[in-house]
Amino acid sequence: MNQVTVTKVREGIWIFTEDAPGTAVDAYLVCGSERAVLIDSLQEATGIYGRVRELTKLPVDLLLTHGHYDHTGAAWEFAEAGCAIYMEPSDLPLLPDAKRPLNEAAVTPLKDGQIFELGGRTLETILVPGHTPGSAVFLDRKDQIAFSGDSFGSGPIWLQLPYSLPLSRFQVNLEAALEKLEEIPDLLLLQGHRNQSPRELRLDYVHDLLDTVKAVRDGSLRGETETMEAAGQVFPYAVVSHGAMLGLFYSPERIEE
Ligand SMILES: [Zn+2]
């Protein structure tokens, strides 16, 4: 069983870190005065609902940044406990990859701009399709935090998956998200795999990501094409580095739509 460490970030916010082989994965408990949410549900760890209950007795919803197995691992526990589970429905086909998959019927569709009022703390949904078609970021303006899942990567970003969006479409979504995020100059990104980044991520990281996407599109950055296997498929990818982007993985066949 992978070890899970719970760390308090500030009043009402905790990080749950699962020490999964390969890369650690993070989930976040965010509490207001009336309600709480857990953002993502780790990879293979169990007993997560119980550990949330040790920290808060408030009604809790589960918000999923996307449907990957390493973010939806304990989601079934929240379904069994009768919690509402929110995810953008485009990611439903990814759910069966989890060790104990969440039933599609347990998922409430998440919408762009959807607000979660927790009491004295509000989370705003920003959809950023790219890494997966249903990827979302949750913005806490008061605490100046964006819970970004894998949308902005965690050092490297994976946009090469067979269902990832072409870079041209990801750029449009990223620019729209950035417009909202830039309203908070001191924004801190709390992402899905903090261990993959050598430093705290701020807005400059998102700008570096945007610049890297543009550079691949205009041909000034180009990686060697290789192949990888994931989810039972073999597909080409290339990787480039620029600024804070330790690796932007993309499909050479899907740069433009
Ligand atoms: Zn992912």
Describe it for me?
This protein has a seven-stranded mixed beta sheet with strand order 1-2-3-4-5-6-7. The chain has a five-stranded mixed beta sheet with strand order 8-9-10-11-13. Strands 12-16-15-14 form a four-stranded mixed beta sheet. The protein has a single domain (4-156, 163-218), classed as Ribonuclease Z/Hydroxyacylglutathione hydrolase-like (Metallo-beta-lactamase, Chain A), CATH 3.60.15. The mean pLDDT is 96. It contains four helices and 16 strands. The chain has 257 residues and is an alpha/beta fold. 17% of the residues lie in helices and 32% in strands. Strand 3 and strand 4 form a beta hairpin. Helix 3 (167-181) packs antiparallel against helix 4. The chain has helices spanning 48-55, 75-80, 167-181, 203-217, and strands at residues 4-10, 13-18, 25-31, 36-39, 60-63, 85-87, 107-109, 115-117, 122-127, 136-140, 145-149, 156-159, 188-191, 226-230, 233-242, 245-250. Zinc ion binds next to loops.
